[in-house]
Specification:
- The protein has 394 residues and is of the alpha/beta class.
- 50% of the residues lie in helices and 12% in strands.
- It is built from 18 helices and 8 strands.
- A 6-stranded mixed sheet has the order 1-4-3-2-5-6, with helices on both faces. It has a two-stranded antiparallel ribbon with strand order 7-8.
- Helix 1 runs parallel beside helix 2 (68-74), helix 10 (215-235) packs across helix 12 (245-254) and helix 15 (306-326) crosses helix 16.
Length: 394
């Protein structure tokens, strides 16, 4: 492989790189960034590779218009972009440049559909699929420091120089299993820009499941999360610097009525309280003005009975056996929560399971009939020689 070790940092170099990439059907993309003291990731390096060449791009020395030719490549529908564990990279590209790499294939997702396990690291994946050994990452490296040391350049290249080759190997395996389209579908979830936009309702929903709030408290929580999400983006600081989740939950429970009450509240730093007291009170008062019929409903937690919990454990063991046989990560088949809902609902066909959202179409094709058979008592688990086997009931 030809390694270009200089950092590309001029508009002319970016245009030349984009031109070199335009004839490719598949390229590898990776980013290095910092996020310790900011809300938005600070992009420090972009790595690009084909199967035969690898480049490093220095985004710190390029204005957004200068890098546009490369962004056009990232959005070119004729070029598949290969990323590993792509969510963080896609977020970095979106918050830095307003684009995500599409169409994409996430090699971590592809590997999980091929039976290599959940969230496999790139180093292990390269070793398992290609027999290539690369060192593990530099988690605490400052990728914005210049000049960049040679050993860091070498590591950065290693993150992408084998990606196209490993992607092709995984896609061959996926094709033979009939899961290639499924891998692209799952990878495309990380391309959606809405994933990286403020989502106060989604955050509040996750928080309310872990703590007790009435409907009015839930409404207050949504408004408080909305305030925080806008605030951290405006200041570009981590959420903890403004207010962590526990503080918002406590505020939603207590719902201070005035400045004196809010000032006495523990958990908010004095600087933030001084800057945002009015906005906080307004957020809480907005929820207080809602009529009972306007309040969002706190979701009822799905708490299994003792017998249901045992049945779910039994079915999870069954699903893990199927996942081993099918060489696919169990999380792509069905979750524990969905197994509980499956026990509670009267479903008689695989189509019913898919329609109810308990199985994806891909999972339905793989395990739907077996799951129905187990629910109807037509399958059993048997222990022999310290191993669990699936047995068909006579």
């Amino acid at each position: 492989m030809k390694i270009h070790n200089e950092l590309l940092s001029t508009p002319q170099e970016i245009q030349a790189l984009a031109t070199a990439l335009q004839g490719q059907s598949m390229i590898a993309v990776d980013t290095e960034f910092l996020r310790e003291t900011t809300f938005y990731p600070v992009i420090g390096l972009i790595q690009i590779a084909t199967e035969t060449e690898s480049w490093l791009v220095d985004p710190l020395r390029l204005e957004n218009p200068d890098i546009q030719p490369l962004l056009d490549v990232f959005c070119d529908p004729k070029i598949v972009k290969v990323l590993h564990a792509s969510q963080a990279d896609q977020e970095c590209l979106y918050t830095s440049y307003g684009v995500t790499a599409t169409p994409s294939i996430d090699t971590a997702v592809a590997a999980s559909l091929c039976g290599y396990g959940d969230s496999i690291g790139l180093s292990k994946l390269l070793k398992d699929v290609l027999g290539v050994h690369v060192p593990k990452g530099h988690a605490r490296t400052d990728w914005t420091a210049r000049p960049m040391q040679e050993h860091l350049k070498k590591y950065a290249h290693q993150d992408v120089q084998h990606l196209v080759k490993v992607a092709k190997k995984l896609l061959e395996q996926l094709d033979s299993k009939g899961r290639k389209a499924w891998a692209f579908e799952l990878s495309a979830r990380f391309e959606k820009k809405k994933n990286y936009e403020p989502n106060p309702e989604g955050i509040a929903l996750k928080l309310v499941k872990s703590g007790r709030l009435d409907n009015r408290g839930y409404a207050a929580l949504i408004e408080l999360v909305r305030w925080r999400e806008n605030r951290v983006r405006h200041l570009d600081v981590p959420r903890r610097r403004v207010a962590d989740d526990d503080v918002l939950m406590d505020l939603a429970k207590v719902r201070p009525k005035n400045l004196d009450h809010l000032t006495a509240f523990r958990g908010l730093n004095k600087g933030e309280l001084k800057a945002s007291a009015t906005a906080l009170l307004e957020a809480i008062q907005k929820s207080e003005k809602l009529g009972e019929s306007e309040l969002p409903q706190v979701p009822t937690p799905a708490i299994p009975s003792l017998s249901e919990a045992r049945a779910v454990e039994f079915l999870q063991c069954f699903v893990r056996i199927l996942s081993d046989q099918l060489e696919i990560s169990a999380r792509h088949l069905i979750t524990g929560d969905d197994l509980l809902f499956l026990l509670r609902r009267n479903v008689n066909t695989v189509e019913d399971m898919v329609k109810e959202g308990l199985l994806t179409e891909g999972a339905g094709r793989l395990i739907g009939e077996e799951l129905l058979a187990m629910l109807k008592g037509k399958r059993q688990l048997s222990l022999r020689n310290n191993q669990v086997f699936l047995v068909e009931q006579a």
